[in-house]
Amino acid sequence: MERQDRQPHRGTAVVLGASMAGLLTARALADHYQRVIVVDRDPLAPTVSSEPRRGVPQGRHAHGVLASGMQVIEALLPGATADLTAAGAIPMSITFAICSTRSGPGSVTTRTT
Fold first, then answer.
1. Counting Cβ atoms within 10 Å, is residue 15 exposed (0-12), middle (13-18) or buried (19+)?
2. 25-45 burial, b for 16+ CB within 10 Å, e for fewer?
3. In this structure, is residue 71 part of a structural domain?
4. I want to staple 17 with a disulfide (CB 3.0 to 4.6 A). Which of 22, 25, 34, 39 is the partner?
5. Same domain for 81 and 35?
6. Which residues make Cβ contacts (< 8 Å) with residue 105, sequence separation at least 6?
7. What domain range is 111 assigned to?
8. Residue 60 DSSP code
9. Is residue 49 part of a domain?
């Protein structure tokens, strides 16, 4: 994905929801709007938190990003892969079978075969 450096020329864009999709949309719109506002009912933590937000019931589930999705994220947010890895994300190949169990809050055991 090639980014074009353009001066923002429109007024304000509003994005409803601070999910990954909402935040990435806001980032993409920032190249085209002078101001981008993200509206979400839950307050966002100022730092990384292992607690899911109230409005995100799937927040306790395991999540993954396919390679093409990570390429898009990296194009929008250079250094995101390194930041996620530094924060504890585990890069893995989906070409292997994965077995994960959760034995307690925040405890995950992963085995690839």
1. buried
2. bbbbbeeebeebebebeeeee
3. yes
4. 22
5. no
6. none
7. 62-113
8. G
9. no
